[in-house]
Amino acid sequence: MYQVERAIFDLRRGLPVLLTDPAGDRLVHPVEGLDTEDMASLLEVCGEAPAMVVSVHRMAALGTQIEGEAACLALGSRAPLSLRALQTLAFGTSSQELALFADPKEAGTADTAALNLMRRALLIPAALTVGIRAGCREKVDDFVAQGRLLSVSAQAAADCLIQADGGLVRISEARIPLAEAEASRFVLFRESDGLREHLAILIGDRKKWKSAVPLRLHSACLTGDLFASLRCDCGEQLRGAVADIDAQGGGILLYLAQEGRGIGLANKLRAYALQDSGFDTLDADQVLGFGDDERQYRVAVDMLRALEVDCVQMLTNNPLKIEALANGGIEVVGRQGLFGRVTTHNRRYLHAKAERAGHWLEEAFENEQSQQSG
Ligand SMILES: Nc1nc2c(ncn2[C@@H]2O[C@H](COP(=O)(O)OP(=O)(O)OP(=O)(O)O)[C@@H](O)[C@H]2O)c(=O)[nH]1
Ligand SMILES: [Zn+2]
Question: Residue 150 belongs to what domain range?
Fold first, then answer.
């Protein structure tokens, strides 16, 4: 996986990567950060029609349902390409470009690889990809030999999401007294590829924990957790969970590096901007090419195993979290809801979670009504 990790860094820096594949090597560049110069150099080596890889979610936002995870769009067959057209196709809110510029075809291994690399790199999941013209092969190989271009096996890159959260390493720990739970200990875990770190906050005296350990899985939300953003309920849930766990005699809060339901902070801010123009929280993510919820909870299961916990009582309103732990072999014996305040800024977000993602939030809205009438 070493080359894959390096590829992720190159892509995040706005550099292209060569994906090697028996079906034909492809040069790949994220659409995010692409400029006219990058585009011209890629098209110069291009042997056949260039293509763009987008996700099934982006295709749905463009009004086309497809099977599988990725779609390969053959570009430029009907009209000349422009950077603006590529960007509109990748993350714009008008779907006209699809009809103008692109013919969808089935995605191959290199296409899936390109898409998975973008997602793991927390970039918008859309990439410009080109096959290499015979006359340019030598130049591309020279670039690889000189270390100016990174070459990665498409198969290894395609697998980067599956392997991403295996092999957690317990790195360091310390006692951190918290305002809501003085006897707290932070344990930091790092994913084996070094890209993400997650925290387990152990609250209270472990010897006194109930046999079904009170557990909160909390996905990072910088805006809510740290700055008390009113757009969501995360900050209040976080502090409320620490206090609740402490009041129940102790337990665990796993603070997971899954900002923005797994799409990353940069994309969450983009999604917020889209919400301000009328999209709800799920549709905004779809415009950017993401699914309703991109989080994977294997990392949480691995942390619980490392902490020797296999039976829990969860603090959550999210049915997916319970399902994911149960599928990972953790016994979930009960659930307790956890609510922040409903505000004018977060009401629409909470409604979308309840109505479209099946979160149990009735009590939050009951509290809102009683506060209003009281
Ligand atoms: N993409 C996106 N992410 C958001 C938005 N608002 C909040 N988030 C993220 O959603 C996640 C919320 O995580 P959690 O607090 O674990 O909440 P949850 O999935 O609602 O589940 P419970 O709180 O356990 O009921 C965090 O990663 C936030 O950064 C939004 O509008 N768009
Ligand atoms: Zn939040």
Answer: 2-159
Residue 280 known to be catalytic: no
Looking up residue 127, the CATH number of its domain turns out to be: 3.90.870.10
- Cα end-to-end distance, the chain, whole Å: 58
pLDDT tens profile 76-110: 766 678 898 899 999 999 777 676 667 788 889 99
CA 135, CA 150: separation in Å to the nearest integer? 20
- End-of-domain residue from the set 106, 132, 159: 159
For residue 199 the two structure tokens come to 């925290």
Instruction: Using the Cα atoms of residue 31, residue 37, residue 42 and residue 44 in order, give the sign of their dihedral.
Output: positive
Please pick, among 10, 25, 225, 293, the residue that the annotation labels catalytic. 293
- Ligand number, closest to the Cα atom of 279: 1
For residues 112 and 28, membership in a common domain is answered with: yes
Give yes or no: 295 in active site. yes
Percentages (nearest 5) of helix, strand, coil residues in the chain: 45, 20, 35
Residue 353: what pLDDT?
86
Distance between CA atoms of residues 349 and 281, nearest Å? 6
Sign of CA dihedral 355, 360, 363, 368: negative
- List the beta strands (DSSP E) in 272-330: 311-315
Residue 344's SS3 state is: coil
* Closest by Cα among 339, 335, 305, 340 to 320: 335
Assess whether 200 and 108 both reside in one domain.
Answer: no
Residue nearest to atom 9 of ligand 1 (CA): 260
The ligand 1 atom at the shortest distance from the C-alpha of residue 263 is: 1
Q: Which of 120, 196, 270, 295 is catalytic?
A: 295
Query: Directed axis angle between helix 83-91 and helix 36-45, to 10°?
Result: 100
Write out the binding residues for Zn(2+): 221, 232, 234
How many domains does the chain contain in total? 2
Would you place residue 66 in the very low, low, confident or very high pLDDT band (cuts 50, 70, 90)? confident
Tens of pLDDT, residues 180-203: 999 999 999 999 888 899 999 999
Q: Which ligand is closest in space to the CA of residue 285?
A: 1
Element (H, E) at 235: helix 234-247
